[in-house]
Amino acid sequence: MDNALSLSADNRTPLSSERIAAMDAYWRACNYLAAGMIYLRDNPLLREPLRREHIKQRLLGHWGASPGLSFAYVHLNRIITERHQEAIFIAGPGHGAPGVLAPVYLEGTYSEIYPNTSEDEDGLTSFFKQFSFPGGIGSHCTPETPGSIHEGGELGYSISHAFGAAFDNPRLLVAVVVGDGEAETGPLATSWHSNKFLNPIRDGAVLPILHLNGYKINNPTLLARIPRDELAALMRGYGWVPHFVEGDDPAAMHQQMAATLDRCLDQIREIQQRARTSGQATRAHWPMIVLRTPKGWTGPREVGGKQVEGSWRSHQVPLSDLDANPDRIRQLEDWLRSYRPDELFDRAGRLIPELKALAPKGLMRMSASPHANGGLLRRALRMPDYRQHAQTVAQPGRVSAMNTKPLGAFLRDVMAKNMDNFRVFGPDENTSNKLDAIYAVSKKLWLADYLPEDADGGELAPDGRVLEMLSEHTLEGWYEGYVLTGRHGFFATYEAFVHVIDSMYNQHAKWLAISEEIPWRAPVSSINLLITSTVWRQDHNGFTHQDPGFLDVVVNKNPEVTRIYLPPDVNCLLFTADHCLRSRNDINVIVADKQMHLQYLDMDQAITHCTKGVGIWDWASNDQGGEPDVVMVGCGDIPTKEALAATALLREYFPDLRIRFINVVDLFRMQPEGEHPHGLSDRDFDSLFTVDKPIIFNFHGYPWLIHRLAYRRTNHKNLHVRGYKEKGHINTPLELAIENEIDRFSLAIDVINRVPRLQVSGAHVKERLKDHKIACRQYAHEHGTDAPDLANWTWPH
């Protein structure tokens, strides 16, 4: 059955005429509330003739998609009630909040959470007024919306969020309405492939409802204008079984939608039961619905002689310019009264009991589901001891190791202890990023066809918990949906291409920042992003792979939810990862390259150093008991190595030069404490960095970011930052460092230039250092590698 192609509506008639009338009345109530949110600030039930003072001065909101959203919501409520089906609702259309807020209010959840919007006339007045109104709520399904895990502020992520919610939730149905404008975005187009990653034994189900109402803001939508068989072929090509519900007559559409939902749920249960009975998880062809309705359904048919319902003109506010056209107030009242609110609400302003009875009860309401407030379901991870993977460091800076390889072993142990609520995400790069130890306990999830040669790697399995797909958008969407419904994860990706999810990061950061202010939103697990294959080791990939600018994007967001860590070695990375996996309501960005790097701190030292976030490395400093002549700073693995090498050179050439060496792990320690929760106090900052000595700061990313963070510091005028400056192509690692002046020779020259007593006496040394830079370039271009004595440099003892 799941392989059948449905091109026509189901011919069953599951609804009696009485049930159709009741469901239509409930839907009319939803539509009345949706329109009321856009227009009314008083007289919420039209108990008196509508006047201009009852109407908001500024009309904001989006009507066009709202009737279709509430239509789907009302029909899903029937499925929940009759089948005792746990479900949550995701609204993909960005500004479709009125179509969701209305049923959320009618089923009582909104008033339970916000007592001022009680289920009576006064509460309804408050409910209407707050919508798109200063001090109120926005026109998306924001974090303030009960039952929402998807705001839709930026289009394209609804399906991937839905699948993230369904993973490891075997009893859950995630209904996701996809707007036909949203369906034109790249992330949404790719996310249709998510069905190939749904394990019918251990996962729940996702039911996409592609809502074709024909228009975007003022243009037709592509999927609404292609022939029906072409659209069906497209959906089938993605691996779905499409079912069509089409029309504009409410009674016929109610019957058609009910029959189609019944058929889809039957197919879902058959797929799940077959897999769960046999114990064999195979790729299924899941059902989906194409719901075609007029845009602005049930709204004004025309305004000013121009078509509105079924046209782009209904996208936002169908009736506007009320002051210039007073007759439109009467047209607005006629429209609102067409829903017959006096039949739907009692004298106190409450939904009448026979309609109230149609909604699910308690936690079965989609707006009250704990899955949509995932912190309520969150269980802390059972954490292994990260110290078991510690790198032995007898002397700092003498041995090298792959920083991320022990992290892979640690993640393997985390996975082993949390096989039902932890997943690892990555775009086909986990092995490249040296995290492949995780495959020892959980393979890559793969439900599609196998070929004989696939057995060689042995990393594919239908029950794998490592999710790999070459779409950072889809992975991040899965991850966010998984976390927002109460679980944990870890995402590793290449530094240059994490920018693919810049906007997704922005949206999630905004969601978390607002959620922090909402008392009923329970904290969720943090998003943990490992950024690797970094800028300073792109000796063969070249210029396109050189971009550390994601850190600049992170810094733009609310400091309450943003964290950036640049651990310089294995032990610092392990401690940082453990800390991040335990945290809540943050986005943790960890920058750590996957290649061989010098190791500096044993585990006890790493714990102390990372706990402080920034600190002096005494073993690399010689200013003990006095003031330094210069402060040398490393932030990031390669910048730290080059800063140490510069320090060693300077101490060799100028034995009496007093150098303080500082390493920064927690980037936000550079900000004042009043600007970020991790910020250093000015006193501590001045103690470390001095108030008047030159600071040579060697940074992993773009240098101006450090100035942005530290511009208010006392000694900012003496802060000289080296970082990536968009220089480089196919270079050896040291040559690339020289191109951007973060190399040991450039740093040492900078110190000579900044320390007054060396500006003249250091001239000969400076010339020698310049010669070294030229020689390094010549060697690289002749041999294709860096000179061994430089590439294999270690800290002298």
UniProtKB/TrEMBL annotation:
Domain Xylulose 5-phosphate/Fructose 6-phosphate phosphoketolase N-terminal: 16-376
Known cofactor(s): thiamine diphosphate
Residue ranges annotated for the Xylulose 5-phosphate/Fructose 6-phosphate phosphoketolase C-terminal domain, each copy included: 594-795
UniProtKB keywords: Lyase, Thiamine pyrophosphate
Enzyme nomenclature, EC number: 4.1.2.-
The keyword Lyase appears for this protein: yes
Gene3D superfamilies: 3.40.50.920, 3.40.50.970
InterPro entries named among the record's database cross-references: Phosphoketolase, THDP-binding, Transketo_C/PFOR_II, Xul5P/Fru6P_PKetolase, Xul5P/Fru6P_PKetolase_C, Xul5P/Fru6P_PKetolase_CS, Xul5P/Fru6P_PKetolase_N, Xul5P/Fru6P_PKetolase_ThDP_BS
PANTHER family documented for this protein: PHOSPHOKETOLASE-RELATED
NCBIfam families found in the cross-reference section: PRK05261.1-2 (NF003617), PRK05261.1-4 (NF003619)
Family: Belongs to the XFP family.
Protein name in the entry: Probable phosphoketolase
Species per Swiss-Prot/TrEMBL record: Thioalkalicoccus limnaeus
